[in-house]
Amino acid sequence: MDGEDLRRLPEVGRALRAVPGGVPAVRLVGEITPDASWQLPLLQEGEELPGGGYLLFPGHRLVALYGHSWAPELGVLAEQSPEEAVTRAAAIAPDYGGEGLVVVPAFEIIATVADSRAGDDGNYSNESPLDDIRPWIEAAGEAGFYVLLDLQPGRSDFLAQARLYEEFLRLPYVGLALDPEWRLGPDE
Question: What is the CA radius of gyration of the chain?
């Protein structure tokens, strides 16, 4: 392996999973990094990302429709249903190919919106309910898209907000976009 990140070898993962009954033992030779202890099980059992492989970058280009799940004034995403957005993104994405990159259509969903009002929780951020986002995540998954959940923490922190969406973040095709917007209160 000579120090390679095993995730850069999707063909090895495909070969391991193609063996009937599974592979009883794997022996890595060469300069192996400590990360191999968690990377090898990923190759043996993990799901590949949209566009193939276990790493988005380098090699992939995400082309996303951006916005809130139900507020068209916050981006083009909510200008249509999730299914119509899949069709729209799938039609647009190929135009951004080239340079040897795999183009992956995506949704960037604003999951939390920074606000000038403190709100009931006092964090100056409005968190979208899971059920508002779920149809978009499901449509993207069925279409082979990638999803970025955009977090605008207000006065909260990224980790606290990410935990709200842990159910989605456990899916191999969902990641985070950290948008450090914050708002001052009316007395500041």
Answer: 19
Q: Read off the pLDDT of residues 82-98 as tens digits, 9 standing for 90 and up.
A: 999 999 999 999 999 88
- Measuring CA to CA, how many Å separate 144 from each of 51, 121, 140, 153? 8, 36, 6, 28
pLDDT digits (tens, 9 = 90+) for 145-187: 999 999 999 888 899 999 999 999 999 999 999 988 765 555 5
Residue in this structure with the two tokens 């280009």, named with its chain if needed: 61
* DSSP code of residue 46: P
Sign of CA dihedral 28, 46, 3, 18: positive
Longest CA span, the chain: 66
| Residue owning tokens 């006065």 | 155
For residues 154-172, one letter each, b for 16 or more C-beta atoms within 10 angstroms of the residue's C-beta and e for the rest, the string is bbbeeeebbebbeebeeee
Q: Which of 158, 137, 156 is nearest to 146 (CA)?
A: 137
First to last CA, the chain: 56
User: For residue 80, which of 70, 95, 91 has the smallest C-alpha distance?
Assistant: 70
* Dihedral angle sign, alpha carbons of residues 174, 175, 179, 185: positive
| C-alpha to C-alpha distances, 183 to 8, 121, 155, nearest whole angstrom | 40, 14, 7
